[in-house]
UniProtKB/TrEMBL annotation:
It comes from the Bacteria. One of its GO terms (cellular component) is membrane. Its main location: membrane. Belongs to the bacterial sugar transferase family. It is a multi-pass membrane protein. Residues 272-455 form the Bacterial sugar transferase domain. One of its GO terms (molecular function) is phosphotransferase activity, for other substituted phosphate groups. The keyword Transferase applies. This is Putative colanic acid biosysnthesis UDP-glucose lipid carrier transferase.
Length: 462
């Protein structure tokens, strides 16, 4: 829904090309160090091509060229780590799929080392250059803020905290000075703004009052234009909204929502659904024929009852669906009760299946049917929906999207029993954050982290 400027697209394209060149350089350097200049490069050419194509796929899926995050060091490193992990996975699939075992493992380690070093070094150089650029272009820009509400104080904190932006915060203007703790930063009343800006040669004025102050807004805007002062509007919505808002355009009409909704876009819906179908089919066709007979025999040998367990769960928009799992408990009459640590209902086989999350495998049929997604908020039981939707304000937001086999909350440690309310609240926070920040790259990160968690084991999986 957000419009992407030509400048932003160009920057992303340039960064992709530069990093492809760096990867190519790392590949060639590793080849030189391993084989020397005398050996022909021809038999490694196919790997060279795949090496670069895999980076394009991995980089775009992990959204490592998101402009707002390029200069965020922590986020940048995190995105690059996931990008290289996915890249390595693609290369491994290529080598195994085409039986290209003749490629030197030592060479691959050297190629990844050289490429990662080059890409990370280039990113740090980019961050340094960007900060220097901002300091040179905006250094000592004098800024004043009209208003003392939430938006005004957020601006003040930004100017003070982010020195690299190069702004010099001059002060607030308000007719209600008693409403701010920063009394020493108040430079006058609203009627004093113009004289102060002319006297101090202010560069930018930030209007942080409610948008209902239309006459004042128009007056200050005209004054700024007449005196070559940049005028910015940071409307204070706190009078009627208690959360951040998201603004996008439908044609030329600005529309405001109280949260981001990336999965409202048809393109994203189709992309997620296509991946769900492809991934679930791959699991059903290639994994089930081998693992289903083993699990089925183990379940039957330990306890009487069916192999599969079916329970109605609330899905998207609270629509009930039959959720499938491998049976992990002895037959009982309290299936509505959440499993607890050392639960006597759980069989030995069931405990292993739960610990490794193998009990969830039948849910790939739910994914194929469209009741679930590979990634999304975990579907709770019906009685949990009734209880938590009354106790947690944002609980129902989880049901704006299709529930998942794994989710953002689960890979961040919030799975298993929820005795205390705050544990469910944290789950809901992560689920809402997932909905508001969804990207295909985020789904891939969650899947990769799920696999890693299964391998190392999870304390709360029981």
């Amino acid at each position: 829904m957000e419009k992407v400027s030509t400048h932003t697209k160009l920057l992303k394209a340039v960064l992709l090309v530069v990093e492809l060149l760096l990867l190519s350089l790392g590949f060639r350097v590793a080849y030189f160090l391993k084989f020397g200049p005398e050996i022909s490069f021809t038999h490694y050419y196919s790997l060279f091509v795949i090496f670069n194509l895999a980076w394009i796929v991995s980089a775009l899926f992990n959204d490592i060229y998101h402009v707002k995050e390029i200069t965020n060091t922590r986020k940048m490193l995190s995105n690059l780590v996931y990008a290289f992990l996915l890249h390595g996975f693609i290369i491994a699939v290529y080598i195994v799929g085409f039986k290209a075992h003749y490629f030197s493992r030592e060479f691959l380690v050297m190629a990844y080392g050289a490429s990662a070093l080059a890409v990370v070094a280039a990113r740090f150089m980019l961050i340094s250059a960007y900060k220097r650029y901002k300091l040179s272009t905006t250094a000592n820009r004098k800024a004043v803020v009209i208003g003392t509400g939430r938006s005004a104080h957020s601006l003040h904190d930004m100017f003070i905290t982010n020195k690299e932006l190069g702004y010099r915060f001059m002060g607030f203007f308000t007719d209600k000075p008693e409403e701010t703790p920063h009394q020493d930063l108040i430079r006058g009343r609203l009627e004093d703004i113009k004289a102060y800006c002319l006297r101090e040669q202010v560069d930018e004025i930030y209007f942080a009052l409610p948008i209902t102050e239309r006459d004042l807004l128009d007056d200050i805007a005209k004054f700024a234009d007449d005196n070559f002062i940049y005028f910015r509007i940071v409307p204070d919505f706190s009078a009627f909204l208690q959360k951040n808002v998201n603004i996008y355009h439908m044609d030329s009409i600005p529309v405001m929502t109280v949260r981001k909704e990336p999965l409202m876009e048809t393109t994203n819906q189709w992309l997620k659904r296509a991946f769900d179908i492809a991934f679930s089919l791959a699991v059903i066709l290639f994994l089930f024929p081998f693992i289903l007979p083993i699990i089925a025999i183990a379940i039957k040998l330990e306890s009487e009852g069916p192999i599969f367990f079916k329970q109605m769960r609330p899905g998207k928009k609270n629509q009930l669906f039959a959720c499938y799992k491998f049976r992990t408990m002895r037959i009982n009459n309290v299936t509505h009760q959440q499993a607890t640590k050392d639960d006597p209902r759980i069989t030995k086989v069931g405990r292993f299946l739960r610990k490794t999350s193998l009990d969830e495998l039948p849910q790939f049929f739910n994914v194929l049917l469209g009741d679930m997604s590979v990634v999304g908020p975990r579907p709770n039981m019906i009685n949990q929906l009734e209880h938590y939707s009354k106790a947690i304000d944002t609980y129902t937001l989880r049901h704006f999207v299709t529930p998942g086999i794994t989710g953002f909350a689960q890979v961040n440690g919030y799975r298993g029993e929820t005795k205390q309310m705050h544990l469910m609240q944290k789950r809901v926070e992560y689920d809402v954050a997932y909905i508001e920040n969804w990207s295909f790259g985020l789904d891939l990160k969650i899947i990769l982290k799920t696999v890693l968690n299964i391998i190392k084991g999870e304390e709360n999986a029981y």
